[in-house]
# Entry
Amino acid sequence: MPARYGGFETCAEELSVGLVNKGHKVVVTCRKYLYPEKFKYYKGVKLIHLPSIKGKFTDTFSHTFLSILRVLLESPDIILIFNSANSPFAIIGKILGKKIVINVNGLEWKRKKWNFIGKIYFKFC
# Structure
């Protein structure tokens, strides 16, 4: 945050800031390479900047894995995961007794940008 390049980011910002305005503590992880200014807080939302392995098939996946591990240190009541491709990491939080919410964010397996294996993976998730 702040949102810069898409609907998901805008959703994350609006939801996070809205929850802070209602008195909740909110922590959001951000990809380190996308945010050169590295704010610690944005409109009351705590930001944690983490690395990822750049690449079409590795960026989101690697960042989400690190995000889940790091966010658990914050003792969250609920963990919100965007993108169904990240759903395998929900098991980490579930094992530790956390409530998990996954925003599917569309029918990824129908998008032209994914090859056959990618589409099967999204269907699995």
User: Anything to note?
Assistant: The helical segments are 7-21, 59-72, 90-95, 116-124. The beta strands are 27-31, 41-42, 45-50, 78-82, 99-103.
